[in-house]
């Protein structure tokens, strides 16, 4: 329960895992890898914390907060799948999609909100390969969506 204790120390409460909004599953395990579907920046009640685009209606700091919320929701899905977050050996890869106004070029800094949180929670095991992509639109007008691959304990 080390990771659960770390979340508590950081003041993070995981939401209940929610039902998918379309035809997919939240997590798919292949061997000791767990592929987690894209997560949106939802609050504990399931509503989006923000809508809109970075560089237009949202600031860099709001985008980083969205990235953190995506990770919190992701950890809820992971916990639901594997039962205990201590079953996570490492974070392998993070891919972030940032809805951005043309000319906004700080998707990598938005994604730092997710990367820093994963490091704060998992330490060196939270470091990962990463992609940060700027796009025109996300589902439900979400500003950020993040997917990831986790390595599980054998």
From TrEMBL:
So which residues are the signal peptide here? none
Q: Residue limits of the Endoribonuclease L-PSP/chorismate mutase-like domain? A: 4-140
InterPro entries given in the database record: Endoribo_LPSP/chorism_mut-like, RutC-like_sf
Judging by the UniProt lineage, the source's domain of life is: Bacteria
Q: What is this protein called in UniProt?
A: RidA family protein
Question: Per the UniProt entry, what species is this protein from, by scientific name?
Answer: Absicoccus porci
């Amino acid at each position: 329960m080390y990771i659960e204790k770390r979340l508590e120390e950081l003041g993070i409460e995981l939401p209940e895992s929610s039902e998918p909004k379309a035809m997919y599953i939240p997590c798919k395990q292949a061997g000791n890898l767990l592929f987690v579907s894209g997560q949106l920046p939802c609050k504990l009640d399931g509503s989006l914390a923000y809508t809109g685009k970075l560089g237009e209606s949202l600031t860099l700091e709001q985008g980083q907060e969205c990235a953190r919320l995506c990770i919190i929701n992701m950890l809820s899905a992971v916990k639901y799948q594997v039962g205990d977050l201590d079953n996570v050996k490492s974070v392998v890869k993070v891919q972030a999609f940032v809805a951005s106004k043309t000319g906004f070029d700080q998707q990598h800094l938005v994604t730092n909100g997710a990367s820093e949180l994963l490091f704060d929670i998992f330490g060196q095991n939270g470091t990962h390969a990463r992609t940060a992509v700027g796009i025109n639109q996300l589902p439900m007008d979400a500003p950020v969506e993040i997917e990831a691959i986790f390595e599980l304990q054998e």
